[in-house]
Specification:
Elements lengths: L3 H5 L4 H14 L5 E2 L11 H12 L12 H15 L8 E4 L2 H12 L5 E3 L7 H8 L3 E3 L13 H7 L4 E7 L11 H12 L4 E5 L16 H4 L1 H4 L2 E6 L12 E4 L2 H14 L5 H12 L3 H23 L12 E2 L20 H12 L1 E2 L1 E2 L9 E4 L4 H17 L2
Parallel strand pairs: 1-10, 3-4, 3-5, 5-6, 6-7
Antiparallel strand pairs: 2-8, 7-8, 9-12, 11-12
Bound molecules: pyridoxal-5'-phosphate (PLP).
């Protein structure tokens, strides 16, 4: 009855896992979810005030499909402040979150059979979105040797005449790793002579612990490539506005116009009064975010300490709010009840079942032998979750 497209589609693994954790909590179990993909603090007050004012002033009707002019201008201004790059407001487009924007970009860029390079591990939705655009997913594995980052050698190996798009994500979900300017320059040198579009998913770009205010961007390191870089960002993480559903893309005007066209026929504009809040978020005082980042850094050190104590191997993350520890050495072991753990999915299921801790299996991000832990939750619950993990791994035979 349903179309093949719908039959093949599986729900987002991270959203599904969080739903399961909520169900168990409702059923009375004490669940610590380290599977969350959003900050636990509220949207900052100055942003809410701007949206409330907009509501009171009657900003409740349709806006242009590409977003209200003052938000498009604010996006361009923020990009100038953050990256030192200059764009015109008509090169910026507002969508319903970065997820929507990336989906739309793939729809307007890819013909059936075009190839989309998705370095692995990857954010769960990229391959599904590429498939929905009838593109072929090319997912090169980025090994621990290169800190789970794409190297120019691997990139050269997977590039073909059919490559249409590559998706880069730094800081990375799930690994928390950040590309240096040098590494981006080396990738840009390979991409420069191709016609490949770069979707740069920058939604964690300011959530960084390297001491810099923002991570380097591929659009900054190679002028020739810049015109094919599409800068995707979101209000979701930096400003804790996941439920406001606002994301953006800045880049080539032809692509932006095509996305606006696509949105005009599919979703129309972002929520009108939410867009007013977003203008304030981008251009208002950034102090609240800076405070939140300090809090995140302190939670990150708790997880580092607990993983080290439990002898679980990991690469120190430099951004976002995730750890990507290796569970390789626990595969093949058994729970006290005798269940053998063979995969990251079985590891996560046993951890949830026995200790009530939710983590996302690495295989959902395209790589076996790892899990993703999120530390965007309060310190008390985080410590509780980590001590349960310590107990769980030490109970495995
Ligand atoms: C790497 C990455 N890109 C995009 C998104 C989507 O964010 P948004 O809420 O803006 O749709 C997420 C959300 O978790 C993400 O981790």
């Amino acid at each position: 009855m349903l179309a093949t497209r719908a039959q093949r589609l599986k729900p987002s693994a991270t959203l599904a896992l969080n739903a399961k954790a909520h169900d168990l909590t409702r059923a009375g179990r004490d669940i610590v979810s380290l599977a969350v993909g959003e900050p636990d603090w509220d949207t900052f007050n100055y942003i809410k005030e701007a949206a409330k004012k907009a509501l009171d002033e009657g900003f409740t009707k349709y806006t242009p499909a590409a977003g209200i002019p003052d938000l498009r201008a604010a996006l361009v201004e923020r990009t100038k402040i953050d990256l030192g790059l200059t764009y015109e407001p008509n090169q910026a487009l507002v969508g319903l979150g970065a997820k929507h924007v990336i989906y739309n970009l793939l729809q307007v860029l890819c013909n059936p059979g075009d190839e989309v390079i998705i370095p692995t591990p990857y954010w769960v939705s990229y391959p599904v979105m590429a498939e929905l655009a009838e593109a072929k997913v090319v997912a090169p594995v980025c090994s621990q040797k290169t800190n789970f980052k794409l190297s120019p050698e691997v990139l050269k190996n997977v590039l073909s005449a059919k490559t249409k798009v590559i998706i880069l994500n730094s800081p990375n979900n799930p690994t928390g790793q950040v590309y240096t300017a040098e590494e981006l320059k080396n990738l840009a040198n390979v991409l420069e002579r191709t016609g490949v579009w770069v979707i740069s998913d920058d939604i964690y770009d300011r959530m960084v612990f390297t001491g810099d205010s923002i991570v380097p961007n591929i659009a900054q390191v190679n002028e020739k490539l810049r015109e094919r870089v599409l800068l995707v960002n979101s209000m979701s993480k930096t400003y804790s506005m996941t439920g406001w559903r606002l994301g953006s893309v800045i880049g080539d005007k032809r692509v932006i116009d095509a996305c606006a066209n696509f949105q005009s026929q599919s979703s129309s504009s972002g929520v009108t009064f939410a867009q007013k809040g977003a203008v304030q978020a981008l251009l208002g005082p950034q102090k609240d975010f800076e405070e939140a980042l300090k809090e995140l850094a302190s939670r990150k050190s708790i997880v580092s300490k607990c993983l080290t104590e439990a002898n679980i191997e990991f690469l120190e993350p430099q951004g976002a709010f995730y750890f990507w520890p290796s569970i390789e050495k626990f595969l093949g072991r058994r729970t006290p009840q005798g269940t053998e753990i063979k995969t990251s999915t079985e590891f996560s299921a046993a951890l949830l079942d026995l200790e009530g801790v939710a983590v996302v299996p690495g295989i959902e991000f395209g790589m076996e032998g790892f899990v993703r832990l999120s530390y965007a939750l309060n310190e008390k619950r985080l410590c509780e979750g980590m001590s349960r993990i310590q107990r769980f791994v030490s109970s495995l035979n």
